[in-house]
Amino acid sequence: MQTRATPATAAPLERFNTATAAEAAQTLLTCLHSRAWAHRLVAHRPYPDLPALLAAADEAAYDLSPDDLTDALSAETLPTLPDDTYAAAHTALSAAHAAYESRFGHVFVICLDGLSPDETLNHVLTAIRSRLNNDPDEERLVTAEELRHLAKTRLTNAL
Q1: What three-state secondary structure class fits 30?
Q2: How far apart are CA 125 and CA 96, in angstroms?
């Protein structure tokens, strides 16, 4: 679906609503790398406001298939930690990430929105160690929930 050009001075949501389908999908894929999720959100434009878009994004994320989740996880990177994190902490975190990826076959994802830099490392280490105890089905549900949180945060930041 081709839409009309929008002036650069338009609000981000208005630009998203009136962008071409390919442009809107590209914006969404930077938030969550799932073509099914992006396609569904693009198809339901225009959105009256950001909360409506976020609600639709959340709903679409709940409907992701296991293959869609695998696609989304393939583009995720490890959480960013403060630069001044101790070398020993990086070693512990690297070991925990390696154990996680070995157990579950994908990168560890976690939404750190709202945490202060001082809390980040401890939160990540605690979460990864705790989640290593999950069975694969349980972890897939937790991972999907974290991806939903990440997508909503990224979408809010993008728009």
Answers
A1: coil
A2: 8
Confidence band for 2, pLDDT divided at 50, 70 and 90: very low
33: its two tokens: 């790398």
**Terminal alpha carbon distance of the chain:** 21
Report the alpha-carbon distance of residue 28 to residue 155 in Å, rounded. 7
| Residue appearing with tokens 């799932």 | 34
Dist CA 97 CA 4 (whole Å): 45
Q: What is the pLDDT of residues 139-149, one digit of tens each?
A: 999 999 999 99
Would you kindly state where each structural domain of the chain is located, as residue ranges? 77-151
pLDDT in tens, 89-103: 778 888 999 999 999
The pLDDT value recorded for residue 10 is 66
Which CATH code is given to the segment(s) 77-151?
1.10.3330.10
